Amino acid sequence: MDLNKSLNEFCYYFTRYFEEQIRYWRHILEENPDLKKKSNSKPISFLASLSSAIPTVGKGIGSGITEGEKYINNLIDKDKAFSVSTIAYASNENKDLFRNKLIAGALEFFIHFEYQFTKVKCKNGGITRAMQKLGQDCSNRLFTYLLNEESGAELTSELIQKGILYGDSKRHKTKLLKLGRTIYVDENSKLTTSDFITNCGIRMKHDDVFTYYKTKTSIPVLGHRTCFHFETSLDNYEIESPKYFYNYILTELNTQELLKTIFSYISKKDPLEDIKEFAKFNYEEQVKLLEAASEERHRIREEILGDNATKHVEVKETIESSQITIINRIENVIAENTCLILSQTDKVLQKNEELSRDVADIKSKQDQLETNPIISVDLNKIKEQTTRLKENIEREGKKAEQEIRRFKDRIGKIRL
After folding, report:
1. Structural domain of residue 233, as residue ranges?
2. Are both 117 and 191 inside the same structural domain?
3. Nearest partner of 163 among 96, 106, 242, 99, judged by Cα
4. Which of 79, 199, 295, 408 is 20 to 30 A from 148, comparing alpha carbons?
5. What is the tens place of the pLDDT at every residue in 311-363?
6. CA–CA dist 195, 174 (Å, integer)
C-alpha cells in the first residue's frame, strides 16, 4: 500500500469538501447577515442536514440566494450556528492559513489512524475512491460537530480531530440505518466510514510498553489506533492481547515537511482531474461489465449448442433404433406371409393332384365302357359329369393362381 498516496488523497478530499461547505455557509450568511435567535428554530439534527445540500467538489455556487436558501435561513438559530459562522468568516480572511489548519488537523487524524488507512480501499476505485469517501465523511462529521458548539470557536488542529472523532456521519436518505459511506477493509470486510472512525480499538504506550484496549463495539478487522491526547478516560474499554504489531511510519517523519508536501499537492491538483479519473474508472467498470456479459452470453450459447448437439445425437439414435425395430417387424411379417403363401400353395397343388387323379380315373372308366358293349351305361350322362369336373378343375386352378398373385403383391408392398 502506498501510504503517501493515501495521506495526500485523504487530506485533499477532506480539505476541499470542508472548504466548499464553509464557502456555502458563508454565502448564506452574506445574503442574510442579520440572523436572529428564533423560538421555532430547528434542532441541531436538522441543521446538520445542511451538509447534504452543500455542493460537492466540482460544483459551483450560484450568485444569488435561492428559494431553498431562504427557507434554510428562516430555520437557522444564530446561537446554534455561531461557531460555524465565526469559522466561515475567518476562512475568507486568510485562505492559505485556513487551508493549512485543515491540513494539519487532517494529518494528525491520519497519523492516529495510520494502521487502519493501510488496510482500507474500495472494490470499485481502489485507494483513491476510499480516500474520497473518508474525506467527505470526515468533513461532514466536523461540520455537524461545529453546529453543536454554541460558543465561538477558533479552528485548531485539536478541534478538527475532535470534530471528526465525535461528529455525526451523514445519514443516507435511502438507507435510514446507514451512516457514512461503504468501504472495504482487507479486501472482503465491508464497513461504513462511520464504523471506521468510531469502532477501532486503542493502543497506548506506557514506558515503552504497549497496552491494547477494546469496547463491545470494536471491530476486530480494524485493529487499534493510537490514543488522542485529549482522550483521558478509557472507562468503557477493556484490555486485550492482539496477535499483531504495527510499526507506525508517519510518527517518525517531520510533520512540517509533510504539511508543506500536502499543501503543495492540494494546491496543484485540479478538481477536474477527479471528474476525469472517476469518469475513466466508470468507463473501465462498464467495459468490465460488458466483457462479463459477453462471456456469459458466449457460455450460454455454448451450452445451447452443446445441448442441441446432444439432443441431435439422441434423436438420431432414437430414429436409428426405431428403424431397426420397424425393419425387424417388417421382416417378421414378410416371413409369416411367405409361410402362409407357401402353405396355401401346397394345398392348391395337392387339390390339383387329387383332381387330376379323379379325371384320370373317370377317363379310364369311360374307356372301359366304350370297349365293353355288355355294360349298359348312359354315356352322355358321364360325359356331362366329366365336362363339369374339368370346368371345376379349371376354376379352382384360376382361383389358386389369383391367390398366389395377391400374396406376391402384399409381399412387394411390405418390402417397399
Report:
1. 3-269
2. yes
3. 106
4. 199
5. 778 878 888 887 788 887 777 777 777 777 777 777 767 777 777 787 787 77
6. 19
